[in-house]
Recover the amino acids of this structure.
C-alpha cells in the first residue's frame, strides 16, 4: 500500500515568518510530487510541482525534494494571513498511471 | 480561460434519490478523475478515465457510476445516496503524458437529507 504522510497540524506561524510543511512517502519508485493549497470549503489548487531532487522556487514558495530520504517539503517565505489554508502533498507513483496519492493535509494558520 | 467546470456547485438530494453531478473541461485533457472528499480528509479517488477507458478503484461502492460521453464531459451518478455519501465531489483533469499534473474543478457539495 502506497502511503503519503503529513503532519496534520495545525501549524501556526506569525505573519512574515517562514512556514515549513513536510511530507514523507513510502515508495521509492515515485516520479512526480505536487503541493496543493485548499482553502476551507474550496477545491484543491495546484501551487507547486517537483520532479527531480533539489529545490524549485516559485515566488514565495520553494519545494524541496529528496528521493533518497523519500521526503518532500514546501517552504513559504514571508507568510501572509492569506496563506492560511490546508496544504495537501500528492505523489504520483511510478506504476500507477496518473493516479495521485494524497496526504491528509497540513493546516496552516498565519497570525497577523 | 481554460478551466474545469462542475455543476451544480451545491446539490441537495433525499436519501435514496438518484443524483447526477457533471463536469466539463476546456483544457482538452484526456484524463478525467472523480474524487470524494469528506471534511478534514484527503481526496479519495473514485474512478478515472484515460480517454474512454474507465478505471474503477477497488473500494468504490457500486452505488457510484460514471459516464464520459466525450472528451469534454464526465458525469458522476449516485444511484441511491445514503447519508454517508454527503461530501464534496471533485472533478480533476490531466494530460495522459508527462507528469500528469491534475487540475481541479470547484467541486460540488452534496447534502443528503
Amino acid at each position: 500500500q502506497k502511503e503519503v504522510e503529513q503532519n496534520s497540524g495545525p501549524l501556526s506561524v506569525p505573519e512574515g515568518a517562514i512556514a515549513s510543511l513536510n511530507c514523507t512517502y513510502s515508495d521509492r519508485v515515485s516520479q512526480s510530487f505536487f503541493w496543493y493549497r485548499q482553502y476551507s470549503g474550496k477545491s484543491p489548487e495546484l501551487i507547486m510541482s517537483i520532479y527531480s531532487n533539489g529545490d524549485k522556487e516559485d515566488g514565495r514558495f520553494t519545494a524541496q525534494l529528496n528521493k533518497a530520504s523519500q521526503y518532500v517539503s514546501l517552504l513559504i517565505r514571508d507568510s501572509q494571513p492569506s496563506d492560511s489554508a490546508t496544504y495537501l502533498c500528492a505523489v504520483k507513483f511510478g506504476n500507477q498511471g496518473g493516479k495521485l496519492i494524497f496526504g491528509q493535509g497540513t493546516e496552516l494558520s498565519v497570525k497577523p | 480561460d481554460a478551466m474545469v467546470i462542475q455543476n451544480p456547485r451545491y446539490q441537495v438530494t433525499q436519501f435514496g434519490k438518484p443524483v447526477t453531478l457533471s463536469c466539463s473541461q476546456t483544457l482538452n485533457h484526456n484524463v478525467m478523475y472523480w474524487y470524494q472528499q469528506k471534511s478534514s480528509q484527503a481526496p479519495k479517488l473514485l474512478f478515472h478515465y484515460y480517454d474512454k477507458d474507465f478505471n474503477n478503484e477497488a473500494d468504490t461502492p457500486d452505488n457510484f457510476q460514471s459516464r464520459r460521453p466525450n472528451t469534454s464531459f464526465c458525469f458522476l451518478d449516485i444511484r441511491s445516496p445514503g447519508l454517508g455519501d454527503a461530501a464534496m465531489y471533485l472533478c480533476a483533469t490531466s494530460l495522459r503524458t508527462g507528469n500528469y499534473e491534475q487540475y481541479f474543478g470547484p467541486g460540488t457539495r452534496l447534502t443528503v437529507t
About this structure: Chain B touches chain A through 24 residues (CB under 8 Å). The radius of gyration of chain B is 13 Å. The mean pLDDT of chain B is 94. Chain B has no helices and eleven strands.
